[in-house]
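Reading a protein record of the kind used here takes only a little practice. To see the layout at work, look at the sequence and tokens printed below.
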Amino acid sequence: MTTTGLAQSVGHIPSGLFIVTAKHKDDDGVDGFLASWVQQVSFAPLLVSLCMKPGRPAYDAIMNDEVFAINVVGDHNTSFLKYFWQGFDPEKKVFEKIDHKITNEGAVVMTGAKSSIICRKVSYAQPGDHVVVIAEVLGSIVHDDHAKPQVHIRKHGLDY
């Protein structure tokens, strides 16, 4: 069986769409990236996993134990996905065009998202080309209780 054949069914695993955001303590810049590999992994303590490729925006802040947010994309607000789908030049200050606020914990939450999960990394592993981050949930904000979370199905498991 070809690699694509092996990965076809893997792409059928449904996932949400999320914008992961972070701010470096010593910098005014806000970073973010589109993620689809986010999952709850524990009830007590409340933990989630997040997979991200090294070098992505926000990667350094998350790995340096900065507080970060996983913003759940709702079916009502896909317009801001265009900024994150292909990546963006940090010099363009994309977040000036996206409604957001900085929480008391220092997380960047997108107020137009369905909800935001405020997190801090507690452990990580790199079993392949992405880092799996385990993060403790420090707080959450529901911005739109009526929106449905955006769901993503891929053609195969070899691409986003």
In short: The chain is about 10% helix and 40% strand.
